[in-house]
Amino acid sequence: MIEIGIEEKTYTLNLGPQHPSTHGVLRVLLEMDGEYITKAEPVIGYGHRGHEHMAENRNYQQFLPNMGRVDYLHALAYNQGYCMAVEKLVGLTVPERGEFIRVILSELNRISSHLVWIGAYLLDLGAFTPILYAFDDREHILDLLDRITGSRLTYCFYRFGGAPRDLDEEFITGVRAFIKRLRSRFRDYESLVTKNAIFINRTRDVGVITRDQAVKYGLTGPTLRGSGIAYDIRKSEPYSAYPAFDFQIPIGEKGDVFDRYLVRILEMEQSLRIIEQALNQLPNGPIMADKVPKRLKPAAGEVYQAVESARGEFGCYIVSQGDIKPYRIKLRVPSFGNLSILPEVAVDTLVADLVAILGSVDVVIPEIDR
Amino acid sequence: MIIGLIGVIALVATNALFLIWMERKVSAHMQLRLGPMEVGPHGAVQTVADALKLMGKELITPEEVDRPVYWLAPIVIFLPVLLAFLVIPFSRSLIIKDMNVGIVLILAFSTLTVLALLMAGWSSNNKYSAFGAIRAVAQNVAYEIPLLITVMSVILMVGSFKLSDIVAAQGSYWFVLVQPLAFILFITCATAETNRNPFDLPEAESELVAGFHTEYTGMRFAMFFLAEYTNMFITSAVAAVLFLGGWRGPILPGVVWFLLKVYALIFLMMWFRWTFPRVRFDQLITVAWKVLIPLAFANLLITALVLKLR
Asked: pLDDT digits over A73-100, tens only?
C-alpha cells in the first residue's frame, strides 16, 4: 500500500523559563503545528522559595516581611491581607485613621502595579517606548511611598493594629500633585495606545474568555472583570475603609485582551478617585490600636481573609493552635488560578497571540510559586 | 573606480557609526531619557567603543550548525548592500558608475538579503532562528512586490532606469508632489524590507529571543547590525532619489541636500520604531497582499493613464 501525502506531525517548542516575555520564570510547553499552537501547558515551580513553610517556623511578626516578597508589585495589599487575617484572629480593631492610611497606600500601590503591567505588556507587543513613560509616572509613586514606608518595592509597612508611621503634609500635597499629573497622562496613553490601530488589531478578539469559562476556572481580578462579571472584593465583601468611598467597578464586554487592558486603565482612574476621597475625608486620631501585645499568641482557630489585589483575590488562611508561631498559613494567590485558563484559551493561536494573552492575564510568577 | 570603492567602504563604516549613535539618541529622547553621554561629548564615541568591544568577543560556533552556510551568512548579507552603492548619485558628479540599469541593480541586490536571512536562520540549528528566517522570507517576498510596482510608477514618468536621469527629471517639482501615494507605499515597504519596527518580526525580541541572529556572536552579529543600517541608508537614498529630488536644492551643495534628505527619512523610520507596537505575522502578510499590492497596482494604472492622456 502506498501512502500518499506527508504525515502531519506537531513539534514541541519550549517557551522559557528564561524568556523576555514570561514575566518571571515560567515555562510554557507548546506543541505547535507550524506557527499555530495545538497545546500549551504552563510548567511552574521554578521560583519556589518555601514561604508557607517559612511561616511555620516564624512567629507572626517575623513573617510580615515575607508578604512583601510574595507579590512584589502590590506588596501593600498582601501586607494588608495578612495583617487583617491576624487581627481577626486576635480580635484587634484598627482605628479609622489607620484604615484610611492603609487604603491610600494600597491604592497607590495598585496604580504602580498597573503601570508596570502596561509598560511590560506593551513591551511584549513590540512598543518600546510606553514602558519608559509608565515607569516615569511610577517613579513619583515610589518616591511618595518611600517617604512613608521606607521602601520602594517590597513594602513591609502595616503592623497588627494599624500603621506605624503617620502621613505628613508633604506626602498629602505630593499625592494631590501626582493625581493631577497622572490624569493628564491618561490622555497620552489614550491617544498613543488605546486608539492605535496596530494595538487594536493585536488585541481585539484575541484570547476571548467567556463568562462561563471565567467562572469555571475561578478567575479573579481584572481577568475576570474583562469578561463582564462585576466581582470585586472591595464591593462584594467590603473590608477596611472601602465602604466609605464611592467608586465603580469597570467591566469589559467581550472578554478579549483589549477589554482586560481597558479594565486596568479604568481601574487606575477609579483608584485615583478613591485616593482623592480618602484624602478629603481623612479623620484625625490614632493610627495604631492600643494594647497590641508584643508577642502575639492568638487563640486556637482558623481565619480566612481576602483582599482585592491588582491581580485578583488574595486570600490568607491562617490556622493557629494557640502558639506564637502559626500552625499553617496558606496563601491563596490570584495568579495561580488566572494562569490555569491559559491551556484552554491558547489553542489554535499564534505564538504572538500567546504572548499577548499571557501578558493580559497579568501573572506574577513569584506569587504562583511562593 | 578603486577610489570609489574605497570611498564607499569608508562611507558605509562612518554611516553605520553615525546611525547607531543617532538611533540611540533618538530613541532615548523619545523615551524621556538621555542616551549615551559618557564616552565622548554626548556619547559620540560610544559606537567606536561598542565596535571595539564586539571585535574582542569570542566567535562561538555552536556544534550542530551547518558550518559553511553559517559562516557565509554574515558575508552574504553585507556584500550586496555594498554593491548597491555603485549607482547612488550623491550629487551631480559624485556617482561611482552611472549604469543604464541603475535602479534595477539596487532592487536586485537588495533582494539578496533575504537569502542571507534564510541562510542565517536555517544554519543555526535552532527553532527560534528557523522561525525568524521563515518569517523574514515571507515578509520580504511579500513586500518586494508593492515596492517594485511603486518604483515602476516613477520609472514610467521618467522613462529611464538611470538614477541620474530620474534626478534630472525632477527639475521643476519633486515627484512626491505628484505621487504621494507611491511615496507612502514606498516608505511602508522600505520599513518592511529592512525589517524595522513595526515590521521587525524576524528579530522580534519578546517572542523569539533574537530571531534569525540568535546564535551569532561578536563580529558576525555586528555584520548583521551593520547590514541593517546600511540597508536603511540605501532604501532611504533610493526614496530620496525617486521622490524627493535627489541632490536637488537651492544654495547648499548637492551632497549636503542629498544627505539631509536621506537622514530625514532615516529619522522617520526610527520614529516609527519607537512609537508603534509590532504587527502580528498574519496581519502583516494580509496587509501586504490584500492592501498594498492593489493600491500599488491602482497607482501604476492611474500613472499610466495620466501619462497616456497627456
From this structure: 999 999 999 999 999 888 888 899 999 9
Q: Does residue A62 sit within a domain?
A: yes
pLDDT means per 10 residues, chain B with 310 residues, are: 80 85 88 82 83 80 80 84 83 80 86 84 76 81 90 88 85 84 90 81 56 70 83 89 83 84 90 84 86 92 89
Provide the residue range defining the domain that includes A213: 11-369
Q: Cell numbers of A285, please?
A: 486620631
Q: Which of A122, A129, A136, A203 to mutate to test the interface with B (most CBs of B within 10 A)?
A: A129
CA-derived radius of gyration, chain A: 22
User: What CA–CA distance (Å, rounded) separates A120 from A126?
Assistant: 10
| Residue of chain A nearest B279, judged by CA positions | A198
The alpha carbon of residue A71 is apart from the nearest alpha carbon of chain B, in Å, by: 23
- Cβ A122–B283 below 8 Å, yes or no? no
So what's the pLDDT on residue A8?
65
Q: Is any Cβ of chain A less than 8 angstroms from the Cβ of B207?
A: yes
> Does A35 reside within a domain?
yes
Q: Is residue A3 part of a domain?
A: no
Each residue of A223-244: pLDDT tens digit?
999 898 989 999 888 888 888 8
3-state class (DSSP) for residue A353: helix
Which residues lie closer than 8 Å to A70 by C-beta, 6 or more apart? A51, A78, A331, A333, A366, A367, A370
CA atoms within 13 A on the CB side of A73: 25
CA A272, A278, A164 angle in degrees (round to 5)?
110
CATH number at residue A144: 1.10.645.10
Residues in a beta bridge with A313: A308
Cis before A17? omega within 30: yes
- Count of domains observed in chain A: 1
Phi, psi of B41 (to 5 degrees): -65, 120
Q: How far apart are the first and last CA of chain A?
A: 56
Convert the pLDDT of each residue in A115-156 to its tens digit.
Answer: 999 988 888 887 888 888 889 889 999 999 999 988 898 889
Residue A122 lies in a domain: yes
In Å, how far are A314, B246, B292 from B188, measured between CA atoms?
47, 19, 9
Cα–Cα separations (whole angstroms), residue A165 to A101, A105, A150, A287, A347: 9, 12, 10, 8, 50
Output the CA–CA distances (angstroms, integers) from residue A366 to A43, A73, A113, A131, A335, in the order listed: 13, 10, 15, 21, 9
ipTM of the complex: 0.76
